[in-house]
Design a protein that fits this description.
Keywords: Cell wall biogenesis/degradation, Glycosyltransferase, Membrane, Transferase, Transmembrane, Transmembrane helix. One of its GO terms (molecular function) is cellulose synthase (UDP-forming) activity. One of its GO terms (cellular component) is membrane. There is one protein chain. By secondary structure, the protein is of the alpha/beta class. The protein folds into 2 domains: 292 residues, no CATH class; 372 residues, Spore Coat Polysaccharide Biosynthesis Protein SpsA, Chain A, CATH 3.90.550. Strand 3, helix 6 and strand 4 form a beta-alpha-beta unit. Helix 17 crosses helix 23. The radius of gyration is 27 Å and the shape is globular. The termini are far apart. The protein binds uridine-5'-diphosphate-glucose and manganese (II) ion (MN). The site of uridine-5'-diphosphate-glucose (UPG) has 25 residues, from strand 3, helix 11, helix 16 and helix 17. Uridine-5'-diphosphate-glucose binds next to strand 3, helix 11, helix 16 and helix 17.
């Protein structure tokens, strides 16, 4: 028996580990040397004639770069990859012994997250290759939209045909939308089901267009009463709602196989009471599912993801059912993958560091961080430490198969009320964490601190696919939210560098700290994006000459940092251009989303504002926008506040670079002395090409709004003038 279990999965260390550690060792001393060099310049500022404040600012920037590099080493220490063998599971368990699985799908806004897509997410999970009588799908609708409920009522009917169709034809992509977009079978059964799907979609779309569920869509008195309620609701103030759409004990598909449970709920909202965004929704789901099915395993899915492989739950079970791991295994995390992003991934939406490189790194320590979706949890982990936790005691109808009674429903409705959590430990020591709007990262981190471990599962066939933001404003809005939420963890008493290092491990603490202090990057980048450039046009050298040996320190750090990233990208199966766009987006984030995130967090700390969860838009404005996206054009279009600093920085660099080159040609300054500054501004200019294009050359709807460009030009003039006076 033991032998067999050992073979459920294997683990392999990255062969480059010794090389990475050696590189880190050498790099460390180079960083020390640069800091020492800069420090000595700050101390002896009188000799060079450069104002103290300039060298001091650069020192701050370089110390923050060094901090980021240092924390980044945690995930380079011991990257591992795993493989699992789900077919061997049957040597250990029988199908009827598989644990129950509750799937949580969250949605929050029918206009940013079209109900048709949410339904496809749920259908792809309902159609898992998993015993249907052990599978339940719970949908939480924070938008409290009759449109979403209507879509799910339609989906419940469609599931009767869709589930057997998938299983009979051994289909792998079980989101109907993704399936019909990618396949072109013409046989009869295929055509029939396609027509059914299109019918359903049309009905949902026609309600979407009207904004409500119209009479002609309603078939029974019961439905009509249900939708009447919405006439009295607003999304901010409404009572709890639960609708049991499919019940495993009663409902069967067209081939008489039981269907999984499908349950729609919308927790009570009151505009006066904080509802804790997605974490609040997940905790409501935890409670209600605890009362109805109480499955020991939970899968969380965002409504912008869908299953790309029906055997995924079995893969997760290879770890969750392994007796040598099960006692302290909190979750099995699958990466997020995005098939719709363009060839060169202009917004670096793949987020390869987060979803692959760093996850493999953490996987070799305490297990990966949680990314909110595509994550199979052990329900027990939400209720205590590995040794003390037991299943939630609200569970009433566990395994009794008596169906969902009226009294359970009443209890469940109560558990959804917005006062339910008052005075309880929900959001702190029970369930998903509330202190941060990046609830996924924070919850995973805190679970690790309590002694739980996790596993990163990255099968060859991507387990889940999803949508990534497809406009620059959305992409930056998302990282701004993350930046604020990550600070909320970093600057709390649970700071990974102290609390995490002590309670998990030093290296794991570093990995988590790398993210919590993401936003500090904005300080370094903003300094590096303005100061050397303005000093250049004032003939002030801030870096060593090419002929100075110290120059090679800077060159070494720059080149090896870039080379290491490129190697990591290429090894992970990415391309040169994706890497190039990723390094560009880091600079962009530095002066936009991270800068605004840092400001927003500071305002929160002094009590001026409270950060919110702005849901990422999942729909394209129009066909032209998606055409531009597929061509690889940056999408600006709106005068988003995030674009203003970007315009300033890019125009400052363009002006200073041009002036700097002119000065060198006119021999006003020495090339040797100014090389680094010319290089930095030139590098920014090279990177900013798509932004200049959007400001000065493009005519389409996605171009940079003129007001932003004008602002950029005015501020640049102001900065240049000020620098002449001040420097
Ligand atoms: O009040 C809210 C806000 C959001 N959501 C849901 O949360 C999910 C994630 O929202 P999205 O706008 O797609 O955010 P992303 O930035 O794409 O999500 C990433 O970041 C989040 C934390 O910021 C994590 O929760 C996600 O799992 C992770 O994919 C979606 O299903 C939403 O419907 C809610 O249920 N209630
Ligand atoms: Mn998302």
């Amino acid at each position: 028996m033991k032998m067999k279990m050992k073979c459920l999965h294997t683990l392999k260390e990255d062969p480059l580990i010794p090389f990475n550690r050696f590189h880190a060792f050498v790099y460390f001393f180079a960083v020390l040397a640069v800091v020492y060099h800069r420090f000595s310049l700050v101390m002896n500022d009188t000799s060079s004639g450069v104002p103290f404040s300039m060298f001091a600012s650069l020192l701050v920037a370089e110390l923050l770069f060094a901090l980021q590099w240092f924390t980044g080493q945690g995930s380079k220490w011991r990257p591992v990859t795993r493989r699992e063998f789900p077919e061997r599971l049957w040597e250990m368990v029988e199908e009827k012994q598989l644990p129950k699985l509750d799937v949580f799908v969250c949605t929050a806004d029918p206009y940013k997250e079209p109900p048709v897509n949410v339904v496809c997410t749920a259908l792809s999970a309902m159609a898992f290759d998993y015993p249907t009588d052990r599978l339940s799908v719970y949908v939480s609708d924070d938008g409290c939209s009759e449109l979403t409920l209507f879509a799910f009522m339609e989906a419940a009917k469609f599931a009767l045909h869709w589930l057997p169709f998938c299983k009979d034809n051994n289909i792998l992509v079980r989101s109907p939308e993704a399936y019909f977009n990618s396949s072109n079978h013409h046989d009869h059964s295929h055509q029939k089901i396609k027509i059914m799907y299109q019918d359903m979609k049309e009905r949902i779309d026609s309600c979407m267009k009207r904004g409500f569920v119209s009479e002609d869509m309603i078939i029974s008195q019961k439905e009509s009463e249900l939708f009447m309620k919405w006439k009295r609701f607003t999304r901010r103030d409404h009572p709890s709602i639960i609708e049991i759409l499919l019940e495993s004990d009663k409902d069967k598909d067209v081939s008489s196989v039981p269907l999984p449970n499908l349950i729609y709920l919308s927790r009570e909202k009151s505009s006066k009471i904080a509802h804790n965004f997605k974490a609040g929704a997940l905790n409501s789901l935890l409670r209600v599912s605890g009362m109805i099915t109480n499955a020991p395993v939970i899968l969380t899915l965002d409504c912008d993801m869908y299953s790309n492989d029906p055997s995924t739950p079995l893969r997760a079970m290879c770890y969750l059912l392994d007796p040598s791991m099960a006692s302290d295994l909190a979750y099995v995390q699958f990466p997020q993958r995005f098939p719709g992003i363009n060839d060169k991934d202009i917004y670096a939406a793949e987020i390869r560091h987060l979803f692959q490189i760093n996850s493999q790194g953490l996987a070799g320590l305490c297990g990966p961080s949680c990314v909110g979706t595509n994550c199979f949890f052990n329900r027990r982990c939400f209720f205590g430490s590995p040794s003390s936790s037991s299943l939630h005691n609200d569970a009433i109808c566990d395994a009794k198969n008596e169906g969902i009674s009226y009294s359970i429903l009443q209890k469940a409705l109560d558990a959804l009320s917005c006062r339910y959590e008052h005075g309880t430990k929900w959001g702190s020591s029970i369930g998903f964490q509330y202190e941060s709007i990046v609830e996924d990262y924070n919850t995973g981190y805190r679970l690790q601190c309590r002694g739980w471990r996790s596993v990163f599962c990255e099968p060859e066939r991507p387990a889940f696919f999803g949508d990534a933001p497809m406009s620059l404003n959305d992409a930056l809005g998302q990282t701004k939210r993350w930046c604020v939420g990550l600070y909320e963890v970093g600057f709390s008493r649970y700071c990974p560098l102290t609390f995490g290092a002590k309670n998990v491990s030093f290296l794991a603490g570093l990995c988590y700290a790398y993210y919590s202090f993401w936003g500090l990057w904005s300080i370094s980048i903003t300094i590096y994006a303005l100061l050397p450039q303005l000093a250049l046009i004032n003939h002030i050298p801030l870096f060593p000459k090419i002929s100075d040996p110290c120059f090679y320190l800077y060159a070494y750090l720059f080149i090896t940092t870039y080379a290491q990233e490129l190697i990591e990208f290429m090894r992970g199966g990415s391309t040169f251009w994706k890497w190039w766009n990723e390094q560009r987006i880091w600079m962009i984030r530095g002066v936009t989303s991270f800068l605004f995130g840092s400001i927003e967090f500071t305002l929160k700390c002094i009590g001026i504002s409270t950060p919110g969860f702005t849901v990422t838009n999942k729909v394209m404005e129009d066909d032209e926008q998606s055409e531009r996206y597929n061509k690889g054009l940056y999408e600006f279009g709106v005068a988003s506040p995030l674009f203003f600093p970007l315009a300033v920085v890019t125009i400052v660099n363009l002006s200073c670079f041009t002036l700097g080159v002119a000065e060198v040609l006119r021999k006003k300054v020495s090339f040797d002395e100014m090389f680094v500054q010319l290089f930095i501004s030139g590098f920014v200019v090279l990177n900013s090409w798509p932004i200049y294009e959007a400001m000065f050359f493009r005519k389409d709807q996605g171009r940079m709004p003129t007001i932003v460009t004008v602002f950029g030009v005015c501020m640049t003039s102001l900065f240049v003038l000020l620098s002449f006076f001040l420097f």
